[in-house]
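Can anyone check this?
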Amino acid sequence: MIARVRSADNVGDGSALRSRPQIPPEFEDHRDVWWRREGARQVETAYEAERFIEQVGFAACLTDSRRPGPSLYTAVCGRRDAVMPPNVQKDPEASLTWVLKDELIKRGKVYYAKLARGKATFLAPRMIPYFQAIWGIRRADEPRRLSRPAQSILRVLRHEWEMATADLRDESRVTNRKTFNAALDELQAAMIVMPSEVYYQPKFTYIWTLGVGRFPDGLRRRVKREVALREIARAFLTGAGHTIPGELARVTGLSRPEAGRGNRALVAEGYVTMLRPGTYELKDRERSRPWQTPTDGDS
């Protein structure tokens, strides 16, 4: 049985596209409630956005119905068929999402950065240790795992603590814009650096800082990798209700084998049921409500 489960969790993308399973209608309704894809619960303020992120655990910023998983943009739209228009500058829902993103960065109550695969992601504080356990880099490993441009930027930030984009580029002497942006993305993905504020005048710039300055407890808490996989899977399945092969990996950026391990840990715990290899379903939807934040798992 274990071998069959693993093979399903590791199915290649081509196979998934040829016969893509569908989410049952009752679980689309479940997702509407949890991911705020309904007009009665759509997000309109920064406070509501923070509550949404805390409830779902993690959410993308600007993805739409073409990508699975919770999304701030979809929650602002309040409908499951939301699609980002080509001209986002003139779209009121995309504009509101962007404004809320800037407010959330400034308020500093949820974590925001480009995480796995460069996707702009919000994390509830309770999820930070789990994401850190998977994608974080320990300081002792930085010389081996970070590129030289990323190390140069990090040295400056550890000395200055926070700095605007142009000043950081000059001080780090990573003057090539493409190299600098790639290094910043690298540091964000490793959960070391994050934006702390956004300014539009006199010119547009992010202010960059060390993540540990804003979320010291979450980023310093040590969690076993298997616990992290289980809790990331729990956060997704609680809101999704039902997941199909490859979906957790696609949403989170986990590898398929690790996503499978997280799902199977929830099966062993009795939190979800495996309907067939690669397909999992929440065992008791009635016990899980979006206004009842799931508790942390044991670490």
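Reply from J.R.: I decoded it. The chain is about 50% helix and 15% strand.
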